[in-house]
TrEMBL record:
This is Cation diffusion facilitator CzcD-associated flavoprotein CzcO. InterPro entries: FAD-bind_Monooxygenase_sf, FAD/NAD-bd_sf. Gene3D superfamilies: FAD/NAD(P)-binding domain (3.50.50.60). The lineage of its organism: Bacteria, Bacillati, Actinomycetota, Actinomycetes, Pseudonocardiales.
Amino acid sequence: MAAQYDAVIVGAGFGGMGAAIQLHRLGHRRLLILEREDDLGGTWHVNRYPGLAVDIPSATYSYSFEPNPHWSRLFAPGAELKQYAEHVAEKYGLRPHMRFGTVVTGAHWVEEESHWRVAIAGGDSVTATYLCTATGFLSQPKVPDIEGIEDFGGKVIHTTAWDDDYDLTGKRAAIIGTGATAVQLIPEVAKVAADLTVYQRTPIWVSPKPDYRIPPRLRRLFARIPLAQKVVRAVGSGLLELLMISGVVHYRRLRIANRIAERYCRAHLFRQVRDPELRRKLTPDYSFGCKRPTFSNTYFRAFTKPHVHLETSRIERVEEQAIVTADGRRTEIDVLLLATGFNLWDVNFPAIEIIGRDGKNLGKWWRENRFQAYEGVTVPGFPNLVSLNSPYSYSGLSYFTTIECQMQHIDRLFRAMRARNAKVFEVSQQANDRFLELMRDKVGDSVFALGQCATANSYYFNQHGEATLLRPTSTRNAQREAVRFPLSDYTYA
Ligand code: NAP
């Protein structure tokens, strides 16, 4: 029986849209994009907290084939990313393929039919020749397991479920978390709250943010002469790559670059915070790069305001109107803001149950063996599956680098299939093992293996303590491999 769709893509964020654009280019028209949220854009649809902005320069944090000359700042506010996602969906005709408010519960490979059956909450299911999961890395919000939190009588808001109608003005607020999200949120809440206590478990490396407004005449120039914006993109990407390569990937040889990055962040903190005790609390004790660093000009300074307090004692419990720390202090609050991030390794690899050949369960297999995926895209035993949010897939600092490498991989793989008149691909165990070994070898040179990462509490590490999220190579390497991986690494039928 023929499958209903050429491909089902799970997720309508930038990853899913990139895959859809690529499959469309390859001539696949029967595409279905399933999305659990009520609109497209992924992260940039879900997140609406005050201060939300991209922390990678926008000329870089966008598809290279779809530059946007209209960014208002070097680091665009979140709403512009959402608009950009809408523009891309419109221009590439993706909306008609999308079905919103649709929760995919699982998918299994039907051997006799050589297709995937994708199960949807509510009992419905669809079939597709190819399955592409694009469910994001940071898409399962983490609510902290703190005693009494469910009995709190005030307002609780997770940053991924912002309540636009709730007014923080004059409120006594608490924020749990000091990751990249909190770094953006804290200065904004500090502007309006009567009192703000920030509960920090692990400090974060923060460097200055060269966050400039892009004047209209420059935007007009970008629109008229796209090459001008390409140059800006190349410079931004180059600097990020330098930071990533020297500070993180090649730590063994370029440890000095990592130290320079740390010094730069420390100097930034020194300029903004005069109190040595506060500075000490805000200074990480782990190596730069073990955990996602971020940029901000206003984060450290927020803590110098008299109504903003940094609390580093462990939270003991939450009561009906207060937070109590391990040292017995009790802080009364009206609103509890959870900037507690995401659960990656328990529920997100993969985000849905995927059953491949011979009943092989992807999540179980990853957990019982190692987290692994050939070139961060395909897995042996899972024919016709393109898994975008796989171990070792994240390349460079801009997610768009990852997406575009994966689009190239899809392009090469699907053309190879067409040349062989094949309908089914599967990566060989041998190729997968070779890639895994290479990645493990390269991680051995990185800050993850050689730096002081034990106290970082970083989501780059899985539950076995292995850094299996980032691809520990240069972006150039990822790009090169995407267009020249041996076609014999796959079987075709
Ligand atoms: P995160 O980096 O995982 O930070 C979560 C914070 O909550 C951490 O400080 C964590 O402390 C704390 N936390 C979690 N559970 C806790 C508990 N039970 N008790 C006390 N503290 C707890 O999450 P995020 O800040 O949402 O950022 C996630 C990622 O999103 C970033 O790394 C970045 O990649 C991305 N992001 C990007 C942008 C952008 O502009 N592009 C903006 C925001 C976020 P520990 O560190 O001790 O676990």
